[in-house]
Each structure stands twice: as structure tokens, then as C-alpha cells.
Amino acid sequence: MKMLLPILIATGLCALAPAVEVHSFELTDLIAQEQQVRTVQYPNGTKLMVQQHARPELWTSVRVISRQDSVRHRIFSLDMPSEQTGKMEEFFSYCKEAIKKEGGILESQAQVMNCSFKNDLSGQNGSGGSVSIIAVGDFDEEYLQELVARNFANFAPYQETRPYQAINVITAPNASKVSMHINYATLEQSLGTIGDLREKWVNAFVQEIYQQRMERVAKFFEKPWVHPTTRFLFPRHGYVQVQEEDARNILAVLLWQVEAMKKGGYSTEDFNENKMRMRSSLQYLYANEPYVDSMTLCDYYTDHCLHSDSIPSYGEFLDRSMDLIETISLSDINERLESFLSNENRSIELVYPEKAIDVVLQNDDVEHLLEVVKDVADFYEEGMLPDDAILLLANHDLSKKSTPRFLGPPLKSEARPLPISLANDVKPVADNLAEYSPDLFWQLPLSGQDAKLITYIISNMAEKSIFQLMFEKKDMEKKGDKIRHVHPMRFMGFVFADHYLKKCVRQIKKSSFKWNPLIEGVVKNMKTEYANNNLMQYVPGFAKLLNVNSEQVVAFIEKKDFEGLFRFLM
Prior knowledge:
With about 575 residues, this protein is an alpha+beta fold. Helices cover about 45% and strands about 15% of the residues. A hairpin with a 5-residue loop joins β3 (about 60-65) and β4 (about 75-80).
């Protein structure tokens, strides 16, 4: 028995050729809709979506969406043990009162009975004319419907009294800095066919890359970029916070970056980085689909509720999405960019502190700034500059690391150039660690099928007896052969980022018959990659994923104590 298990596991952790699973479908095929969700529509437009899902048992996840349009919405979140009914009553009461309030950015969290109610504001300020409630878990459905009916069935949400404006400058009592929102609504896409799903992912790519580019600009000037709404799969609107005196200059840079995107489109680097992120998110969910919990399903339904009227089956959505994002190219994204970045699709909002010394920018100022930045861009293409040029980036694209050049009146706060790494300046790999991007780790291949196979192997080793594993020897070996190409750090990252698999490894540790071949396979592969100088560059991303100290990881690698690293991660 001892001799068989090393073959069982080691074959799954050491080699080089990937396996690819191919799904056959047509873009015109209908996509299966979620059948487990029950919907109650109230006369006032409030919608309740409910699904019983006992993983974990006696647990409830609730999301309340107050939506005004495709950009402006609030999301309130609650995750709690089902028996704590008092907290749910407090939660719905809090949501109702918060939605009724006019204007102002609400506190990011409200503590009620030791339960954290997340109140996330996305996009522009303003409450919704419609409310949706999504509830998933193991709970008393009649009691939940009674609470919803009591709070929302006859509820008239606050309606925006001021007309919608593409440019809006307001004040908020709780604000300490100026919040600057430059939003482009995600292009809507109904979900009836697989082709529709592909279009939805194209729109998601367009929005995601835009958000990443704007965040990069904010970080360039060392300004905080705020993601007010927890993201599940589809992108969310973020915003930058600045001091009052910096508002005009930073807004000019952000608007200039939009002009750069209009003129040059998205870069290959932008596209590839975001495709890797989306692929990794889908791979993780795809591998854990059999064990999906109520919180994940609730967030999934919320994502779709925000952007469409239909909800695809969770399993089929992941299955098809894994294949579809591989068919999307940079040209697909850039073709959609013109309509996405159109002036008609844009909204700008500046939220100043209520006690601001001087609200520097008004609507007219922002409109003038838009014209000036566009003029600067046009003149710069011809090598000329107008007299009132306020700010210009020498290279139009901050996605590349470079030093900005400023023209016109000097900035009040000097921008620091990004660090430039010299390719010929060779240092020891550990000392050079800071120069490695965390994204390098995500470039290590791990397909959705790889993730499912790893989950299958680890969970079966933990849950089945040695005798049972003996009968499955051939099947396990075949599955192990298909993940030989997975880098050991990618393998460990996937396993230890998953609470269930981490628990499985601890269970495996209790049996030397199971533990020895597992750790021997990992150590062997780590030694091979160490000899090939193929470990250190992945430490930043690996450490970030697992929320561990990168210096500790480096110490294990430098000592070649790979078993110690594996135990440390447990």
C-alpha cells in the first residue's frame, strides 16, 4: 500500500504537458436559466428572490439593492446565523431608512447588535426607485417573506427630486476629502443565448480595464482609489479621493487618460492582465462549484440582478464563461470602446465636504475642463499647444511606467515618477523581490479543469480510506497525469487559498500513508523549480494570495525547506 500511494500522488504533481477540455456549443444555443430561485414581485415594484441552500447549515445571506439606474445603486449586505432573527429585522429596518434618505453618502458600515451591515455606494449618489432583495441560505422562508412584506411591500423609495445631470457637484456631511467619480455605465446585455453571455463578458472587459486604468492614475499620484462595492465577478465603479486644492489637477489627469483611451484604445498589456484576472476568478469558482456556499450564490445573483433581468444557471454560467473568455480578443474590446466612452454614456460627480473652504469646481468649470483637455489632446497630436493648456502627460498612456511631463501652471503637489527598473542591473533574486509584479504568479497556468482535478484528488485523499483509494488507483493516476504541468507554487496557492482544501490537507496529515507521498511530490517539484531558478519571481503574488509574509516564504525557499513551507501554509 505504501508503494502505491507515492505513484498515485507524485504522478499528479511533477511533469509538463497540459490537458485541455473542449466544450462544443453554438453561440445561438440557449443558456440554461436558474431554476432554484423563487421570485415574488410586489405591486410597488419591489422584488424578492429566494433560494434554500443548506451550505452551510442554518446560515442566511441577504443582499438588498436600491437601484436608480445602470450606474447609481446601493448594495446592503448581511451574512448571519439563521437563528438570529432579531438581526435580520434590524437589517431590513436599517435598509429601509437608509434608502429613504435624500442625498449624502451614508456611513460605509452601521453596527447593529454586533452585526456588520455593509452599505456600499457605487457610482453616483442617489437612492433608487426600485428595490430588490436576494436571500440565499437555510432559513424560515415564511418568516423572511413576512419581514420583506412588512418593510418593503408598501414602501415608496426616495425618488430623486433634482433632474439627472451628466455632471454633478454636491456636498456630503460625512466627507473629509473630495470624492471624484468619472463613470461610464456598463453596456447592458440581456442573457438569452450563449452569444449574449459572450457579449456580456466583452462589456465586462471594457469596464474592468477602464477601472484599472483610472485606478493606476490615482495610485500614480498616491491618491486612494476606493472600491465601495464588493465585487463578485463583474466590475464595479470606483472613485478617487483627493484634497480640495488638488481636485482640478487630478480631474484633468483623469480626463486626459480617458482621451488617451479614446485615441489609442486599450493596450495588449491591459488586455492580457485583465484576462488573467478574470480567468483566475472563474477557475477558482469553477473548481469549487460542487461546494458553493450561500454567500457566493447570493453575490452571484446580485451581480446578475444589477445588470440584467435573467439569471443563468450557476454551473452552466461558469462552464460557458470559462470557454467564452478565451474567444475574446483585444480587437473585440477596442471595437466596443467608442460606444462605451461616448459622452452620452458618461457621468461625472464631485462630492465635496459640507464644510469645504471653497467648492472650487462647479458644473461649468468641469464642462470647460472637458473642452480644454480635449483641445490639448488634439493640439498635441499636431505638435502645438493652446495658451490655456493646463496639464499634459508626455506619453498619453499611464499604463506604461514613465515620468510625466507637465505644461502650463505648475501642480500644487509634485507628482513622483514611478520607479524604473534596469534590466541589466542583475541582483540576487531574493534582494530583487520588490521588482517582481504579483501578476507574475497568475501567469502560471491553471485551467478550470486543472482546478477541478486538484480538488478531486485532495478531497478524495482526505475523505476516503486507504482501502477505498486502492480501488480508485487507476482513475486517480489518470487524473494526476493531467495536472503534471501545474507549477508547485500555483498548486499550493490554489489548495491553501481554499478553506475546504486546506482542511483536507490537515486531514491528510493525520495519515502517514497519505501525507508522505503528497509532501514528497511537492518537495520534489519545488527542488526542480529551485534548480531552474523558477521560484522567487512568484513569491509576491503567492504571498498576496495567501495573505502571508513574503519574507517568511523567501526564508523557507533559501533554506530549501520546502516541507517546512508547506507545513507553514497549513
